[in-house]
Amino acid sequence: MSESIYLQETVTMDFSHPVVSAFVEKHINNGSTDRENAVSLYYAVRDSIRYTPYNIDLTEEGLKASTTLEQGHGWCVSKALLLAACCRAARIQSRLGYADVKNHMSTKRLRDSMQTDIFYWHGYTEILIEGGWIKATPAFNLGLCEKFGIAPLEFNGTCDSIFHPFDKNGNQHMEYLNDRGHFDDLPLERIMASFKKNYPRLKEKISADFEKDAGKEDGLS
Fold first, then answer.
1. CA–CA separation, 164 vs 176, rounded Å?
2. Which of 1, 22, 58, 97 has the smallest number of Cβ neighbours within 10 A?
3. Sign of CA dihedral 179, 181, 182, 183
4. What number of other Cβ atoms are within 10 A of residue 142's Cβ?
5. Residue 131 region by backbone torsions, left for phi larger than 0, else alpha for psi between -120 and 50, else beta
6. Of 216 and 58, the one with more pLDDT
């Protein structure tokens, strides 16, 4: 019987890389259940990898799980990919999910660069736990959520974990506009084509810190 495609290593889900192997070993327990290990990996990716959508690297090398770990920062696509790679390393089946969303948790600098508040191909991870596929979204780290005044997204390995439409003050936060489905591997060419069409200024470099920008705009730092 052949191995499930949802356990296989890929160019970007390079979980045999030493930095990925070490990260997974640190955050799982061989005596734990798949659910417990998936939850542990979720929080490790969510909070140890800082979220930034500035200066994203749309190459296979730039999106590799090992690259995200080595850099210590990523964005929704690369962080979801990292979580999927870690789950596969732990022998937990996983795949990649995408949706187009209107993200109100943004900065003026980012909106000026993107010329829109719609995030195409927003990435999340789907994890197979006890026969069911569960959605997990590890994008926004705890520190960033505090800057924006939103509750961090929790994951218990039982229920889907996707962003709620409102923040803690009742302000609109995230709208899901279009579900693009799930994939066993990164659909990079499709993402690149969409970004080229919708973000003509994407290649312009942003010399700033997203988290600091978030704090300044909300008057928190």
1. 10
2. 1
3. negative
4. 12
5. left
6. 58
